[in-house]
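Chapter summary example.
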Amino acid sequence: MPVGGGDVGLNVWVQDDKLLFYIAQSGAFDENNSLLKLGRVNITMKPNPFASNRRYSFRQRLNINDGYIAISGGLGTELKIWVDMDTSDIHVSSRSRAPMKYTASLESWRTEEHQMVPPEQQQTSWGVSAVPQLPVPDQRPDTVGFTDSGVLSYHHNGDLPLWDAQVAEQDIQDPESYFNPMRNNTFGLFMYSPDLKRTLMTSGTYINTRYTGFQLVSTKASSRFSLIIGTDQQQTTDVNAWKQALIAKTKAGLSKSQASTIAWWSAYWDRSHIIINPAAGNSDPGFQVGRNYQYFRYMMACNAKGQYPTRFNGGLFTFDPVLTDSEVPFTPDWRRWSGGTFTAQNQRLLYWPLLKTGDFDILTQGIDFYSNTSPNHRKLGQQYFGLDVALTSEQLDNTGLPNIYEYNARAFGDDPEERTDLYPPGIDFNDWLSWQQDTANEFADMAIMARSVYGEDVSKWVSFVEYQLAWFDEFYQQRNGLNSSGELIIYPASGAETYKLALNPSSTVSGLVRVITDLLDSGVSFVKGNRTYYEQYRARVPKTPLRPCPGATELTCISPATNYSFAQNTEPSAMYAVFPWSEYGLGQPTNLSYAIHTYFNDSQAATYRGNTGWRQDQIWFARMGLTDLATEYITDRLSDSTRYRFSAFKGPNYDWSPDINHYGSAAIGLQEMVMQTFALNNTQIRLLGAWPADWSGSFKLTAPQQTVVQGEISNSAVENLIITPSSRLQDVVYGLEKSQHPSVD
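The structure predicted for these 745 residues follows.
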């Protein structure tokens, strides 16, 4: 069960006589760019309130309203676990009728150096595959021990073997000038209680991982107990000062009230909600949809103040990997697709929903990732192509460099290939990721829309947006010039990860028009171009290509590209013209049937459907007004997990458990069923465009022009509608009003 706050997340459970939890912190990147856990805490009590003859009293409950876990046991025992939203300190408190003795142990599996084995390196940024040309990494140990009446555990990055190898592989010039979150990164915890004293070091095995325990024990039996675990992560060369500051912060935080954290959570839940069939109970499918949507928001908020985005492949809530896949018997640090490599195709799905929830503070993380690495991307654009543009790849390490394996994947292995002109230095030599520079465009559009939706000052992101856009105009003109109509020739390019060596992929050209239009409408002060330039740039972008539907040539479909060489993955990227790029959908002037035919009648796209992980079918259904299908897919996607005990832990799907991008995609789909705001240049507010008649409830969502929309839903109608400002009432339409009526016939 998850709980968290600030930039820390815990997975909490009771097993036999133990209260256990893993601690994860955003930004805890080691030398290999693993996102390491800070450790596991094991708390026992004597007499045991969880003994078999007392289990009738056991209850573990997550209170998302106030952000804590409450656990009840025998002997009147009440435990509370919460994380301070301001300091990321972890608080554990207990009270009971009978005096008890407590033992708190920090359990670490990284007290010694460890040589990884394939495929253990997948948790690092050394790559998803072990190849002879790259080393299997060495895991450096943490420093763990007793100090100041507590337990101190930390990791400090010294040498950077991964970074050095990337610099050599990619011939990076002046690497010391590059932004690098691994450099001198220091992270850890201090566990302390005035009720406990140091005792023994222990050792053992949990699941399949050896650990060393550092125990604190009660000085005397008591009916009350409190423990604090202070955490911190920062880049520093002065480790001693960092340690002393962490210890002082932790001890000072012991007496801090939960009041400010409860107030934060209260304000957070007041921003937004979608509640469905509230009186129906846990077994009702609609109720489960609403509840698990709220749990997604909760998991995102546990990292509300983190420097780094919540990861799509488990977030802060991964656990022993063998419980997900028996073929990966590694430590609790393990996850598929790394902890320090960020994949835009997945990450974007966690951050698009935040525009409608009003969570600007959390959205900032996703955009800052690209804004912070943009100077590095500009250096790459200059180094490789002599252009003042951002060269941004799809799968980036947190330094902004392409992942070391993905950058040269075809040059690795037992049958290495040589680069050709189609894969010049700077471009991923990789069938999946080559020429996929456009996924960062989605974060660029989020940055621009944050100004319209929230009214926030987004000036710090404008440079990222403009230099990201500049790649497509300046690079493709440098390589290909313009066609006879004065349009860009966007080749070689990529339609998502699927349509490779593509000409004018629809996911790219539709997106460029949308981002440039939103930029022109935003009123921001430009730092590279100007209004005239962007109007001319938009005119140079080719139109989204169409084609006779494969398998139904009498119908017109959106084409994934004007042409392409081969298909690699299984993404129907032509549908990106519906979402994220909003060229087609309810209320738009384009022919909605083209999008519907693409999904249902294109024989190739029909093989690319699905309803797990990063797939987006339910979003497209909602935007096309296909209520029955949207409801069917969203009900399945947000149904309670049958694999894990917490109802919003699903996975691994394509990634890892818990699969956060599965829930991000679901959140977007559910929001679009309630409210759509993309039509007519983000001015229309369409309510219940794809809402089932048998769902009731309430909602509060945020729309462009700093608009808040809230109401109750009953019998397919919105009641007690409140829109702030009220002038936006004139922009509201309901259901399929003022739209082409969709048909899948």
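To summarize the output: Residues 360-385 form the longest helix (26 residues).
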